[in-house]
Design brief:
By secondary structure, the protein is an alpha+beta fold. It has 4 helices and 4 strands, in the order H-H-E-E-E-E-H-H. This is Kinetochore protein SPC25.
Length: about 250
Amino acid sequence: MSQPSRAPKFDLSDILAQPHPQIDLRLDAFEASTRKFLKALSNYHERAIVEITKRRERHAAEKKKLNEKASAAESETTQCKVREIELVAELEREQEEKRDAEQGAASFKRQLFALREKCASVDVEIEQYRALTSNLQREKNKESATLHAHAAYASPELRTCENRLRSVIEGIKEDQILVRFSHIDRLDTDKEFSFVLDVGSRIYRVLTITPVLPTMPIFLEELNESRDFYGFIKAVRAGFEELASPQGY
């Protein structure tokens, strides 16, 4: 950097003694120096503005990065909190499911114990039923033998009854007996008179009858009281004969 020019030295008395006094102030040099100063000042100002702009931009960039980091950290923190809440809720659900599972297991154990007790009770009942069935089977066999013996004894009587009363007695279904009479109608000896008797219970019932015999309820009541089946058959035939007589029609 050039040294500043020194102010010129002059003698005032000599200057004033001149016919046209004049002082050389060296304005050209001053103006040149001033222009250089202003130019230097302008360059400094521009450099300062550029530097300040750069610093401001760097500061803004750093501030932006810090804000982004802070935002990312805040977002991550929020996600962590949300995840924490979810994990807590999931843990509570698992604990609730665990409690439910434990309660269910305890309930199943109680049910299993009750079922085992019931099975033991059922086994006892089965043994009782087996014993009862065995007894019933023996009784049934005994009754069957008695019935066979009675049938062997009753068969001749049945045939005698059928021959005498011109009737046919046969089983048609379980506990149902069909009784058919012939030689009742003198005009048509082959005409059939019949009825079906239900003997499945203590009280006998007539299911069907052809033709309708008005006195059948009376005969049936007498049968249920006396249990005289042969007398009942005779009474029914007599009723059919009365019904078939000319006065009956």
